[in-house]
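Quick one:
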Amino acid sequence: MGLSTHVLDTMHGTPAGGMAVALYRNDGGQALLVKRFTLNADGRNPDGPLYDNASLQRGTYRLVFDVAAYFRARGVTLPDPPFLDQVSLDFGVADTRAHYHVPLLCSPWSYSTYRGS
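Output:
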């Protein structure tokens, strides 16, 4: 399956549909933008996997989730500056034959992630 992500809004108990996300690939110490997308109603990339196994390369990547803008759009009053604005997750891909699923569970005040299946 390659690389995928999924975001759950733990404040509201729903998928984080409408959240903006950016994917970067580290190339020689420089982060190169691969794509920007907005999560669908299920909290996933509307185009499916971010990479399939044939396109996924060994290396390091970064997903940047626009958490504060998402919660503001949901009507949540946040302080200025917000406690969490953008959440950046740096992770490595060692085996391009494996599936790397990078979920994010978030609220305006906390987040967690793990390598999912």
